[in-house]
Amino acid sequence: MLNKKVEEALNEQIKLEEESSRVYMAMASWCESNGFPGAAQFLYKHSDEERMHQTKLIHYVNDRGGHAVLNSLAEPGNVYKSLKDVFEQVLHHELHVTASINALYHLATQEKDYTTGQFLQWYIMEQIEEESLVNGILDKMNLAGDNKGGIFFIDKELAALGAPAAAPKAT
Ligand code: FEO
Question: Which domain holds residue 81?
Answer without folding.
Answer: 4-152
